[in-house]
C-alpha cells in the first residue's frame, strides 16, 4: 500500500466498459470453468470485439486457439478477464498491464475474503500491480455487464443487449446477476453494472464518481456490504444524489447479517441507525431487498422527476380499492375523494350495479371495455388534486373468457388497446398512469396466463406505462420518488 | 328484523356445502350472465350433483331444459344459486325455501351496498325470508367454493378439486377468487371458501363457529371489511383461535380504505389500533394483504404447530446469506453462528474457495450436488439450537447449464433429487426444511424457467417441503407461526 493512491492514476473507463480487444486468462479446455464460462457468455451475448484466450497448456476452445501466455497476444489489449488460481493472479495481472490493458476483472476467489494471511498477502500484491497502472475489478467477483459493448457478467450469457438508464454497483456477484435478470424480466434497462467483489482497487467511491458524470446513467443503484472509507463514500453519495437518484441496498445491517458480510466480502458493516441517518442526509433512497430495489429503480427510470402525493386508484373489484387505500397511507400517499359532480359523471359510464366511483374507483368487473376505462381515467384526471393515476388491471381473469371462446388468452386479453389508451391518457392529462398487473394464476395449468401477463407488461412498458406486479410495490416505489424529490424541492 | 334470531334455526351446513340437488335461478340463454356463468363453472369443475335451471322464459342451455319456475323442479333441492335481478330475489328465495333448500347464495347486487332506501328494503326482505328457514349467503357475493363437493365460486370454473385444510371467509368476492387461484398456484388447498358479500344472513360469526368445529378445516382465514356485531365476532374469534390458527386480513383500516369499504359492502370499518389490539388479544394472526395471507396460511398448513425461533439458512451466494440474516431479525428469528468444530465439518464438504459455513451457510455456487446439500443440512441440524432450516435454492441458474447442454431446463434442474433429499433430512432430523425458490428469470424468454420453477414447487410440496417465492416471505410466515404458537405456549 506504499504506492501512489489510485485516484491520481487516470482511469480510462471508456476502454474498460467498451473494450475492443480483450484477453481471457485462464480458460480451461476441460470441463466447466470461469474462463471458458465467460468466453461462452461473451460469445452468446454477442460481444463484437476481439477475444484472446490464454492458458499455458495451449489448445483450442470452440475453434479459437489458446495462447500460452498473455505476452503472446499480438498487439495491445484494452481489458482483461482473469480466472486463474489466486496464486497466479498477480503475475497474470502484471502481464496484462504490460499489454496495455486499462483494466482487468478478476473472477478468482481465495483472497482477503478467506480471512487467511495468504489471502491477505495475495490481495496486497494485486493492489500493488494495480497501482502501477491497471485498474482492477474484483477479485472474487462477476465483473462488468455493459449492454452497449456486450461485456457481461460471468453467469450472464443471455442478458439484454438493450441499454437503459440504470447503473448498478455491487459487492455481490449473485446480486448483480439476479438484478440483471430481474431487470430483464420487468423491463428495466441498464447502462453499466459492476460486480466488484472484494474491491481491492476500484470500488464504490471511484465508481460512484464515474457514474455521477456518466451521461449513459440516469439512476444509480448500489448493493453495499461495507465501505472502505466512510467519509469519502458519503461525499461521493452526496455529490451523486445531487445529480441523479441514488438507490442503496445496504446488506448486513443486522447482527447475523454483519457476520455474514465478514465472510462474504470481508467488509466492515455498520449499524442500522447510522446508515439510515447517513443515507437520509445525502438524499439517497434506502431499500431493503432486491425486489424493492428493482421496483424503485423502475419508478425512477420511468416516471417524471418529481413527487406524486395525491393519486387516484382504479381497479376491478371493491376489495382492491380498499386494499389500495390501506396500502397508500403508510407511504404518505393520499387518495382524495372525488367531488360529487365528478363521481356522478364517472358513475354514468361505469357498469351498474356493483361499481363505485368515489376514488378508489371500483369498475366492478374485470371485463370493462378499454375505451370505457380510458374515459374513466380522463374524467378522474380532471380532479386538479390528482397527480398520478394507478390502474389495477385484472387481465388474468380473461383466462375464463378465453376458455369459453376457445381462444388463447393472449389473443383475448385487451392489453394492446389498454396500453395505447393509457398512453394517450397520460399524454393528454400530463398525469402518469401506472399499471399494476397482479397475477394469482401462475401454476402449471396457467402458463398461458403467465405468458400473456409478460406480453402485457412488455406492451405497457413499450408505451411508456410503468408496470408493477403488486399494488403495494407500486405505492412503495412511488413513495421512494416522493422522499427523494420531496427532499430536493423542499 | 322481527323474526326469531337466525341462531335458533338449525342450519344444515352439510347440505349447503355438499348439496346433491341444486337450482340455478336466473339463467339467461342469451349472452353471458351470472346464472349461465355459474352453470358453466359447475359443469367445468365437475360438480357431480343434479342441477336444475330456472328462467320464466324457458328454453335450454347446453342441452339442459330451463324450467319456468322453481316450483317446477321435481322433488326437493338442497341448495340454490340465485342470479335474478335484485327486485326478483326475495320471491325466488321464498320459492327455494318452499322447495326445501337448506341454503341459497345470492349473486345479485343492488341491495344495501347501494346506500339507497330501495336496496335497504330489498335486503330486509331477503332477511325476512331467510328467518323462515333458509340460510342465505350474500347478496352481492361470489358464493361457495368447496373442492370436495365441486361447488365453486362464480368465476372459478378451473379451481382445484383437491381438498385441504384451509378455510376462507370473505366479504369480497374478488378476494375469494384471487385467493383460490393463488392457493392453486402455490399448492395451498382449501376445505371451504365462502364469499358472503353483504352478509345479510350468514356471515362472519356463524361461519366462524361452524369452521371452528369443522373437521375438514385446520386453518381459518378471513377477509373482513367490517363486522356486524363486534363482541360476538371477537368471542367467536377467541373460541376459534383456541382450536386452530385464525388469520385475519382486515381491509379498510386507513381513512381512504374505510371510505372504500362503505361503498363496497356497506360495513363499518374500525380503527387500525383497535383492530390490532383485539386481534392480538384473541391470538389471531393479522396480515396486511393477500400475498401475506396466502403465505401465512401455507406455513400454518404445512409446518408443525409450534414456534421456530432459531434457524439455519443455507443458500448459493453470500449476499443471500447476508440478506437472510438481515431479514430474519425483524421477525424475531435468530440465525445462531455454528460452533467452530461444526463449521469445520461443513467446510470440509463444501466447494472451496468461495463458500462459507458459519450460518448462514453460503454454498458458493448454484450447482452444488443435491447429495452434498443433503449432507450440509444433516450437519447443520446437529446444532441443537437449530429448530428449522431454510434452503434458498437458485434453480433458475440451471437455465445456463441447460443451454450449454442443449437440454430443456426442466430436465436439467435437479429438483426431484433435492425434494427427496430434503424430505429425508426433515424426517431424520425432526427439523422442518423450508425451501425458497426465487426466480429473477421470468420474462418472455424464460417461460421455460417459470415452468421449471412451478414443477419444482409442486414436487417439493408433494414431498411435504413448503415453498416460498422470496426469503422475506418465508421468514414473515414463520414469524406468524411464532406469534400464534408462542402466545399459546407461554
TrEMBL record, chains A, B:
This is CoA-binding protein. Residues 16-111 form the CoA-binding domain. Pfam families: CoA_binding_2 (PF13380), Ligase_CoA_2 (PF19045), Succ_CoA_lig (PF13607). It comes from Desulfatitalea alkaliphila. Keywords: ATP-binding, Ligase, Nucleotide-binding. One of its GO terms (molecular function) is acetate-CoA ligase (ADP-forming) activity. InterPro entries: Acyl-CoA_Synth/Transferase, CoA-bd, Ligase_CoA_dom, NAD(P)-bd_dom_sf, Succ_CoA_lig_flav_dom, Succinyl-CoA_synth-like.
